[in-house]
Amino acid sequence: MKPTPEHDARMASMTFSSVYPHYVTKVERKGRTKEELHQVITWLTGFDDQKLQELVNEKVTFKTFFRDANLNPNAHLIAGTICGYKIEEIDNPLTKQVRYLDKLVDELAKGKKLEKILRQG
Fold first, then answer.
1. What is the rounded CA–CA span in Å between residue 23 and residue 20?
2. pLDDT mean over 73-97
3. How is the chain split into domains, by residue range?
4. What CATH topology corresponds to 5-117?
5. Is the dihedral of CA 31, 32, 35, 37 positive or negative?
6. DSSP bridge partners of 51
7. Taking Cα atoms as reference points, which of 77, 85, 120, 119 lies closest to residue 102?
């Protein structure tokens, strides 16, 4: 499935704070911790816990969230399908970055080892 321009626009305008609680619930329900979630988000974006909380409080859009992020140089190693979209086939950079984050959260919730999630070998 290929994202449409409307889908890309929806991703850009969605707020990180509206999705973040769902990420926390998803990983905690599967026995992982909020700290592990933050480790994964920090690896991808470079944001520390304080900055993450600021972004949640400010209700920034994903467009702003990823504009301010320092994307990990190994982010391109994140591959596979998430929400019906094959990450490697997504052309829009922002939509791809949002799906990177979704994929990492999904891998964490599925019990994958942090070393593998963080593309360390």
1. 5
2. 93
3. 5-117
4. Helicase, Ruva Protein; domain 3 (1.10.8)
5. negative
6. none
7. 85
Q: Find out whether 105 and 95 touch, Cβ atoms under 8 Å.
A: no
Short-list 50, 33, 42, CA closest to 108: 33
Query: Which residue type does 88 have?
Result: E
Of 3-12, 49-58, 95-104, least confident by mean pLDDT is 3-12
At residue 121, does pLDDT exceed 70?
A: no
Distance, CA of 98 to CA of 61 (rounded, Å) = 11
Token duo for residue 27: 């990983």
Residue 46 confidence class, pLDDT cut points 50, 70, 90:
very high
Task: Please state whether the predicted TM-score (pTM) of the whole model is above 0.90.
Answer: yes
Q: Which residue has the tokens 């599925």?
A: 110
Structural tokens at position 97: 């970055």
